[in-house]
Amino acid sequence: MRKLIAALAASVLALSSAVAQTMPSPTIAARSWMLLDATSGQIIASHEPNARIEPASLTKIMTAYLTFAALKEKKLALNQMINVSVRAWKVDASSSKMFIDPATPVSVDDLLHGLMVQSGNDAAVALAEAVAGDESAFVFLMNREAQRMGLKNTRFANPHGLPHPDNFSTAHDLSVLAARVIADYPEFYKIDSVKSFTYNKITQPNRNRLLWLDPTVDGMKTGHTEAAGFCMIASARRPNGNSQRRLISVVLGTNSDQARTQESQKLLNWGFQNFDTVKLYAKGQAIQTPEVWKGSANVVKIGFNQDVLVTVPKGVAAKMKPVLERNDPLVAPLPLNSKVGTLKMMVDGKQMLELPVVALEEVPQASIFGRAWDSMRLWLK
Quick check: 63 pLDDT over 90? Predict the structure, then answer.
């Protein structure tokens, strides 16, 4: 099943290279960038997506993800008070802080707001210690989770993103991480849309300026160091027919705060204006019911084991035509979700997409007499 889902995802992502020929990419003033349609899981456009960069405070997205996991698993609670260590308090004084103090315990909820809204490096250390006991143990969890997510070009050395030679990532990997936060923990992701937060009588604004400029933007995080430049991951939801569509932009290595805001907005607008995300088939929808030989049933429903959504340039969706190639004859036993064919989506005679088609129900073997009868029929066919 996992192999089939992976094959489906790879097929959908492969569409991006085909449609790229019909839609030129925008010009984005950044070292590397990527635009991901989180609704379809498809990369719409990118530039140097696998170039290794210093992620700066974008690192905090993984810190938040692991904290969200601890909350969901009830290892922590939002109202739980955390004692602030001297290590957390003493984190680089010249860097972003929420100004926690060893003399005053702070709630997990406040620390998460300090982390994602104020970009507090002290909050990152305090959360790391709350989740894993100490910072080094938390870094181990960060890298284990990165490996589990398939972030092949990412490594973390700390929970906040202050410069370290073993702290690196890519636009591609960061887009995957961002999408996972939104998909896995939507109830906590809403913290990213908070425009300002006050702690210890100090109010700090969210550095994501798009929260004020674009009402469809609801996250996610900014980052800056001298080596990384000005970076931003932004996410927006806008209408897509009768539903909603989410895009995630990753813009890395711009030359100013204004530039990262402007280029992120440009990238999001370009994606929404020039592409549509369409649902081709629903999970469990039978696209055919072909004949089965030597089975306890004469026919089987075939289709897909997850919704099939694709992102294509505007106007292309109406031109897509399906061509089904079945692995005939279909002979029992047919396990549930076993591959039974391939569906190719064609546009103007050219293949744009290839999808694995599976059995939507199990078909056991027939009795010995049924199998013998079908064997004779197949021989005569």
Answer: yes
Residue 155: DSSP 8-state:
B
pLDDT, average across residues 158-186: 96
**Which residues are the active-site residues?**
57, 60, 119
Q: What is residue 29's predicted lDDT score, i.e. its pLDDT? A: 97
Q: What is the pLDDT of residues 198-221, one digit of tens each?
A: 999 999 999 999 999 999 999 999
Radius of gyration over every alpha carbon of the chain, rounded to an integer in angstroms: 25
Q: How far apart are the two ends of the chain, measured CA to CA in Å?
A: 33
The total of other beta-carbon atoms located within 10 Å of residue 362's CB is 16
- Concatenated DSSP letters for 173-220? HHHHHHHHHHHH-HHHHGGGG--EEEETTEEEE-S-THHHH-TTEEEE
Q: Which long-range contacts (CB under 8 A, 24 or more apart) does 23-30 make?
A: 23/274, 23/275, 23/313, 26/266, 26/267, 26/270, 28/251, 28/263, 28/266, 28/267, 29/254, 29/255, 29/259, 29/263, 30/229, 30/251, 30/252, 30/253, 30/254, 30/259, 30/260, 30/263
Average pLDDT over residues 238-253: 93
Half-sphere exposure of 352 (CA within 13 A, CB side): 20
User: How is residue 319 annotated by DSSP?
Assistant: G
Average pLDDT of 58-81?
Answer: 98
365 DSSP 8-state letter: B
pLDDT at 27: 94
Are the C-beta atoms of 172 and 49 separated by less than 8 Å?
yes
Q: Are the C-beta atoms of 171 and 51 separated by less than 8 Å?
A: yes
For residue 59, the model assigns a pLDDT of: 98
